Amino acid sequence: MLHHLSSPSLKQYNLVVAKTFGRGNKNQFLPGDRRIKLRTERPTSSIQASGLRLLRPRNVKGDDSKDNASGESILLDVQTLERDLDIAIAEENYAKAAQIRDSLKLLRQDSTTSVLAANAQFYESFRIGDLAAMQALWANRKEVCCVHPGARGIYGYEDVMTSWDYVWANYEFPLEIELKDVNVRVIGDVGYVSCVELVKTKGSSWGGQFATNVFERIDGKWFICIHHASVLEL
């Protein structure tokens, strides 16, 4: 049975206690039917290129066999160049840093690479629990939608951001995240990535979700506008 909570901070969202669902969660809350958790502290770490490599995307597929062979290698090239850029700046080798920036610019002009990079940034913000980074990755529109495992869709930028804040409530960061069976498709200013996301929280076993992330290019930058994750039995 579900029990309504009387806490003012929860009541304003009409939250009710719910059972565990997906991603290793323990105590859940729902605004209406939406299953989320309350987090009282927020990490402030920013996305680092080295963190993106920990996601280890595998089996990246594009629109044809050529893309299948190049998608993952391009993404790894971007991550390697980002790391090399950090090193060059730290060593004050600004000539080398300028060359690396030019190489990164050329790679990022490729739409498939850009969508894969945006997808990697999404999972990195998820891995470290960085709400500010997550906020910057989503399109600030009322039409955006997020479906957490076992929950109904949440619509609108503000409600989606609130849902991530609650979902992360009792997590101890960083998480362990791996991506498998990554597929990417880009048509004009819209791109999507489908993948199996494997998530492990401290003291728990791996949980699997099949996820679809839809991105839209707005003013030259890719923003996520839909995230839909469904629980997989491992």
What would you note in describing this structure?
- The structure is a single chain.
- The chain is α+β, with helices and mostly antiparallel strands and 234 residues long.
- The chain has one domain: Nuclear Transport Factor 2, Chain: A, CATH 3.10.450.50.
- It is 37% helix and 26% strand.
- The strands form 2 sheets. The chain has a 6-stranded mixed β-sheet with strand order 4-3-8-7-6-5, with helices on one face.
- β6 and β7 form a beta hairpin.
- The longest helix has 26 residues.
- It is globular and about 50 Å long.
- The two termini are 28 Å apart.
- InterPro entries: NTF2-like_dom_sf, SnoaL-like, UVR_dom.
- It comes from Prunus persica.
- This is SnoaL-like domain-containing protein.
Brief sketch in words of this structure:
With 234 residues, the chain is an alpha+beta fold. Helix content is 37%, strand content 26%.
Distance between the termini: 28 Å
Helix and strand composition category: alpha+beta
Tell me how many strands there are. Answer: 8
Helix content: 25-40%
Largest sheet: 6 strands, mixed
How many separate domains make up the residues?
Answer: 1
Cα gyration radius (Å): 19 Å
Q: In CATH, what is the class?
A: Alpha Beta
Question: How does the overall form come out from the CA principal axes?
Answer: globular
Q: Segments where pLDDT lies below 50 for 5+ residues?
A: 1-22, 25-58, 64-70
